[in-house]
Amino acid sequence: MPVTHYRACHLCEAICGLAIETEGEQILSIKGDHEDPFSRGHICPKAIALQDIQNDPQRLRMPVKRVGEQWQQIGWEEAFELVASRLAAIQQEHGQNAVAVYMGNPNVHNYGSMTHSNYFLGQLHTKQRYSATSVDQLPHHLVSLWMYGHMLAIPIPDIDHTDFFLMLGANPMASNGSIMTVPDVGKRIKALKARGGKLVVVDPRRSETAEQATEHQFVQPGTDASLLVGLLHTLFDEKLVKDSPALQATLGLEDVKAAIAPFSAEAMAEHCAIPAEKIRQLARDFAAADSAVCYGRMGVSVQRYGTLCQWLIQIINLVTGNLDQPGGALCTEPAFDVVGMGKGGHFDKWRSRVSNLPEFNGELPVAALAEEMLTPGEGQIRALVTSAGNPVLSTPNGRQLDRALEGLEFMVSVDLYINETTRHADVILPPTAALEHDHYDITFNNFAVRNVTRINLPILPKPEGSLHDWEIFVGLGQAFAKVLGQTPRQTMAPEMMVDAALRSGPYKDRLSLAVLKEHPHGIDLGPLKPNLLPRLQTPSKQIECAPQVILDDLQRFATDIQQMRPKLGELRLIGRRHVRSNNSWMHNYQRLVKGKARDQLLMHPDDLASRGLSDGQQVVVRSRVGEVTVAVVASDEMLAGVVSLPHGWGHNRKGIEQDVAAAHAGVSANDLTDERFLDPVTGNAALNGVTVEVVAA
């Protein structure tokens, strides 16, 4: 007898509601849940492929260990004891920092990993911790820590009520939103325009979102800071600053005004290739709107001035009266209130051994990971723990990291697959698949464009002999404590932690885990509202506008500005998203890779002609760190002088066990990105704006 289950999709940040019909353990259909108050029936192709992930014969179900060039299945206890004894021995011989940790993006899509990974990893006491944060969103977090006192107090665009949406370096039509949980974004954009509002997209490519926008403005990669500081200068220069409660709660705004005084729209225009009058008019239109919001995502974060860009975005929202205001930038108030529960984070408490890059909240920038393995001396990384990550394909200069992994003494991975990274592991520990365990979106409810909550119950039974991810971390932690002669600490299941958080959160009078289980479609908690000021955790309890590190970085910006625009004949590389992909791990499902090839280089026709190249031919793309051979496609959606290669491909390494992905291997954009090309404020990788050369293959 068919049964319909309701839960949210975990594959991207949109957390769309699903209606999944099963019969026994067979999935009959996956559709959008029209009763979900947040996603309203919206669904994308990734969600339909959940059944392919569940049924993939190459997904690991039990632990395996390397025996020569082969993999041998072993039991959980043997795996835990092997991992614990090897890591403990390496730390005893070489010190605690000889063991490193890398956490991939899917960890934040799986609440058991978030609640329990540190049960084991915390016992390692290593300063060599890394994650996908520093190839993705670190500038967002650091700016919020400095200005608002908490790294997760990130104001989100109130897209459902704004009149003017200025979007830089983001493509939510393909990504479904990022640090802006926004399901059904297409309808939300249509609604914005239908009520007379405007969406202005600034991007080096006329993206899928730009196609839906009121206006698209090309910009040179890596020069968004020039546009943003020109906008801010205009707001001050033309006295377009608006009073607001947030503006009254600031420190350092006069310092900001003085610091950006040299950067007029006229001075910035030539560097971002946007006319000065266009910059000024954009500032006027933004300030004149009843409500407006400026938002920047990957394109402005993963560049050499990513931190500066994110700070400028916050200041623009602030001085136009749109910070902490309806229709502007508002903080979500989630039921599981991470901001209200814990400390805000910390920065630069220690630095990396080789390149002297700063830590953030206990993690070093991943651009330093390979060199910390390859450089001999005290503190050299000799063992690695990875969880749900594939840094060989997702971090800069992946070939260098690939070589570094070969030299490790030991490696363990919590992962579903033998991929480009885990092929180097000695032990792989696979958790249950998503439909076999429960889930609560701790992270993405914190960034949602509306206050919502739901618990996601298992759709399918837990297979005999398998473990959830949190149980794996508990098992590792207990085994490690035993090796050290310590007593393992007590813990509880993730759902009990969620229940405790709900009962102590902002909706404690009406929410608990039991209540959520009575509402399978989720619960709408209402629109975003002003709440930033009482939640400030800065030392002054005010919005601190002028962090000294940022003011110092403006001087770097002023010094380097002449180098921003590419020299004659140079090309700049950017990435791109596709609605059927999510980083590197969703290419082993035929449903998501079928159709027109996507792993191609996009290039403006004029750039092809000037190099004697033709549409569809094979070309070599070279950077300082490497080269790839790929088909080039002529595209007038590209700004001349800019080429685009999608992220996450390159499934042509020996030893991976993902046949569908290997048959659609593509090339890795991170064989071209440069671990030395980064934002020196944070060490965040600058994946956009890398200088490349393109020649015939």
Automatic annotation (TrEMBL):
Organism: Halopseudomonas laoshanensis
SUPFAM superfamilies the record matches: ADC-like (SSF50692), Formate dehydrogenase/DMSO reductase, domains 1-3 (SSF53706)
Family stated for the protein in its record: Belongs to the prokaryotic molybdopterin-containing oxidoreductase family.
Matching Pfam families: Molybdop_Fe4S4, Molybdopterin, Molydop_binding
An MF annotation (GO) of this entry: metal ion binding
Annotated protein name in UniProt: Molybdopterin oxidoreductase family protein
Residues of the 4Fe-4S Mo/W bis-MGD-type domain: 1-58
Keyword Ligase (UniProt): no
Keyword Iron-sulfur: yes
Signal peptide: none
Keywords from the named record: Iron, Iron-sulfur, Metal-binding
InterPro entries (alphabetical): Asp_de-COase-like_dom_sf (IPR009010), MoPterin_dinucl-bd_dom (IPR006657), Mopterin_OxRdtase (IPR006656), Mopterin_OxRdtase_4Fe-4S_dom (IPR006963), Prok_Mopterin_Oxidored (IPR050612)
